[in-house]
């Protein structure tokens, strides 16, 4: 079965509606056009190959086909939700979960009211905040993958906003985690909240400020990004020193944090190593490429984190010293 699959044509070669535009030699499909002209040729959506898109649009040489032409049209970009191309899975793998997490805002409020009738306004707010950060992150990612073929300027803008979304979700992770670690220690909560909010704001300003763009500032941007993520170890280590490892495992939901981290690391490995398309270029143009695997693992990690927050809250609600009579 594997040999037969490997020898068969790539899925992009068998797309019934794929068309290639007629381009002059050496030219790219980046001239402004109406959405209808960009999207369709004799009723079929136009898709182009890696070699037919401009250099700024080229990101993964192992994804050979299925690209939308540069459109210079927001309408054309969003209309591409309606047909299959090599960003379809990237779009829907975050669009659908974003809608789910948005709907979960109301569902979690009702769930907490029923199962934890004495939950405070702060308890409700923590869950609402985490879900909101997930919606923002996934929504910005969806929009970036939708608009990445619009133009160089729009693509660069939304790529930066995509990174901002990652920081926002990281903020949601840490704010909720710190709340559970120091559920009965409001002063420590506020200190660590102040730290992570400050670091997140600094990182976001660096990501969106044009002054810090370009290769010269690449290392600086990466360091601030990584530094913000690593800062999450500080409250965990502090919590272990105060409460002990065994109690922290249940009080903070640490096993779920570790699971979340493992999924994110696995996703990053797929993303950076570009597996499986590296092994078989062109085979995973539409389905199964590394970026799609990364997207799915990010969503799974977010779900694991949400379960961890709920598990930690259940422990603190029933055993927290500040709740005991």
TrEMBL record:
A Gene Ontology biological process term: intracellular zinc ion homeostasis
The keyword Ribonucleoprotein is annotated on this UniProt entry: no
Transmembrane domains' residue ranges: 91-112, 124-145, 157-179, 191-208, 220-242, 254-272, 293-313
Source organism superkingdom: Eukaryota
Record keyword Zinc present: yes
Pfam families: HlyIII (PF03006)
Residue sites binding Zn(2+) per the record: 145, 291, 295
GO cellular-component term (any): membrane
Single Gene Ontology MF annotation: metal ion binding
Protein's membrane topology: Multi-pass membrane protein
Skewed-composition ranges (Polar residues): 1-15
Region of interest called Disordered, as start-end residue ranges on this chain: 1-28
Subcellular localization: Membrane
Keywords (A to Z) from UniProt: Membrane, Metal-binding, Receptor, Transmembrane, Transmembrane helix, Zinc
Main location: membrane
Family: Belongs to the ADIPOR family.
Protein name, UniProt field: ADIPOR-like receptor SPBC12C2.09c
Organism, as annotated: Aspergillus awamori (Black koji mold)
């Amino acid at each position: 079965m594997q040999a037969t699959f490997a020898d068969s044509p790539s899925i992009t070669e068998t797309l019934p509606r794929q068309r290639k535009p007629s381009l002059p030699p050496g030219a790219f499909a980046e001239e402004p056009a109406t959405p209808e002209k960009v999207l369709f040729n004799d009723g079929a959506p136009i898709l182009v190959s890696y070699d037919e898109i401009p250099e700024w649009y080229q990101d993964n040489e192992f994804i050979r086909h299925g690209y939308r032409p540069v459109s210079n049209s927001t309408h054309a970009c969003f209309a591409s939700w309606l047909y299959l191309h090599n960003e379809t899975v990237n779009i829907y793998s975050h669009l659908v979960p974003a809608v789910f997490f948005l709907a979960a805002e109301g569902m979690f409020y009702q769930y907490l009211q029923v199962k934890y009738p004495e939950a405070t306004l702060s308890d409700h707010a923590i869950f609402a905040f985490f879900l909101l950060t997930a919606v923002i992150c996934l929504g910005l990612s969806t929009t970036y993958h939708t608009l990445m073929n619009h133009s160089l300027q729009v693509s660069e803008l939304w790529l930066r906003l995509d990174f901002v979304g990652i920081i926002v979700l990281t903020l949601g992770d840490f704010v909720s985690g710190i709340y559970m670690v120091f559920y009965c220690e409001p002063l420590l909560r506020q200190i660590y909240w102040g730290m992570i909010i400050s670091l997140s704001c600094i990182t976001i300003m660096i990501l969106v400020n044009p002054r810090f763009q370009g290769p010269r500032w690449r290392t600086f941007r990466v360091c601030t990004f990584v530094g913000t993520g690593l800062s999450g170890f500080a409250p965990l280590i502090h919590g272990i020193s105060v409460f002990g490892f065994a109690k922290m495992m249940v009080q903070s939901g640490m096993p779920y944090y570790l699971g979340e981290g493992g999924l994110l690391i696995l996703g990053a490995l797929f993303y950076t190593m570009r597996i499986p398309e590296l092994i078989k270029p062109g085979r995973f143009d539409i389905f199964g490429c590394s970026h799609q695997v990364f997207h799915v693992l990010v969503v799974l990690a977010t779900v694991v984190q949400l379960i961890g927050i709920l598990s930690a809250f259940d422990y603190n609600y029933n055993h927290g010293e500040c709740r005991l009579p």
